[in-house]
Structures are given as C-alpha cells and as structure tokens.
Amino acid sequence: MGEILVGTAGWTDRGLLQSGWYPPGTDTPARRLAHYAERFPLVEVDSTYYHPPSERTAELWVRRTPGDFTFNVKAFRLFTRHPAKPSTLPRDLRWAAGSRRDNVSLDELDPDVVEELWRRFRTALAPLYEAGKLGVVLFQFPPWFSSGPDNRRYLVECRDRAAPLPVCVEFRNHTWMEEHERERTLDFLSQHRLPCVVVDSPRGHGNSIPPVIASTADPAVVRFHGRSTEWNSRIKERRFGYKYSEEELAAWVPALRELSASVSTTYVVLNNCYRDYAHVNAAQLVELLDGAGRER
C-alpha cells in the first residue's frame, strides 16, 4: 500500500484568510505556510498558472516547510494551451507579443521565446526538485483540448520539455474519457508514463470528466473540485463553493486505497477553494483514511 498525501489547492486565498481558519497572529506568508504545513503534508500551488514562478520564491518555500513537505505546482497557462495576457510574460520577453494588448497563445510566440519560457520554468522549480519537495507539475488542459493525435503528441512534448520535473495531466474535455476512447487514452498515458489526474467534479456539463479510477503512472493524483450546480459560472466562489459531506468523502475512501495499492504515492488535492471548505474537507478526509487504515 503506497502513501496517500492529502492537501489543498492553495493556502493564501482571500476567502480563506477571511474565514478564520488561520489563528490570530498568522499574518505573514511565512507564518501562514508554517501553520498550513503543520496540518497537511501537501499543497498545490495555483499562482504559477497565472504567472511563471520565480526561483527565489521556490527557495523560500523550501526553507519554510518541513523536510518531508510536498508541493504540487500548476504549469503556466501558456504551456497548457490557454491564452494569456502579454503582461503575464516575464518583462524582458514581452516584446514577443508585439504591440498586442489582448491575449496571446503559445503558437503565436517566437520558438526561441517559447524555449526560454520552458527553461525558466524548469529553473525556477529546481530548488523544490533538488530538495525532494516537488511532487508533480500539473498540466490542466482546457475544455477545447480534445482527444486527437496532435494533442496526444503535445502531451509527450510537455513531459519532455518539463524534464526532469515530474508531470501529470488533467483533462477538461469529455472526449478523452468517453467510453469508446477511454481505453485508448489510458493505454497511451501508461505507455508514455504520464499520470492521469482522477477528478471528482460536477457531472452533466459539456466539459465534465467522469471519475475514472485508474493509475497510468506513478504517482497517482486525485483532485476534488466540488459538485457545485454553477460549475459553468465565471465567478470562482460559485464554481467552487461546495463543501463535501462526510458521507461523500467516505464514499471515496475505497477508491483512494485502491489507487494507492498500485503506486508509491497518491496525491489528493481538495480544490473546492471557497473560504475554508477545502481545508475542512481535507482534514475530514485524512481522518476517514486513517480510520479505514486502522480497520484493516
């Protein structure tokens, strides 16, 4: 049975800071991360999706957490085929967007600039990797990233460009996991040693992905997005404002244990980040998993 690490997507959201989860006096980034790391062994960094990370910040994360603490890090949005404002690029590379003020895509940038973005991304996360504190880099692809030969090749390209950093992939287009395509997707990911994120998310939407309990590579990764009825809302609080019941979490325990039996590590991230919902649910899930372990 492999290790199961449970954590949340972030520790500095404004709603979390206002919720009272942090005790009085926990008023600096260092104190908040230390408080969080006393309670959970894993956290997912989402800020790197919006802006490329900095090596200095990664160094601080290493210094401010216990030796066995783990960071999962979201890949920069351009790498996952999301458009981005030119202002999100490093200042010295913004010339590549020309005079445009609207969004740019990776394909519109000079290949040398793209290569430099990848190089800087790897370099920035090197302190985490070298300290043994980097779990995986999460490549979360958009709803328009559908199953097909070009996109399958791009998955492997992301793996290779990120190396030696370990990666995992999450889909938000249903074609990857439709009944007639699911086996092909899982076989491809297994062949190329790409962990596929198992998701719990609202069903019945065009970008809904069923919770396929399968491990395509080590480690396994599971992300809980909540089950909000407003999943398509552009307002974050409505999309992720869902607190799981203890019964809903308990129903996942057998699946998590099944996954952990085939890999060395399973990362479980609560991404229902509205106020302290994710943190409360993560603590509940830890207790449920501990209880299930004792019963065995």
UniProtKB/TrEMBL annotation:
Gene3D superfamilies registered for this protein in UniProt: Protein of unknown function UPF0759
Family matches, as InterPro entries: DUF72, UPF0759_sf
Pfam families: DUF72 (PF01904)
PANTHER family: UNCHARACTERIZED PROTEIN YECE (PTHR30348), UPF0759 PROTEIN YUNF (PTHR30348:SF13)
Protein name stated in the entry: Uncharacterized conserved protein YecE, DUF72 family
Species this protein is from: Actinopolyspora saharensis
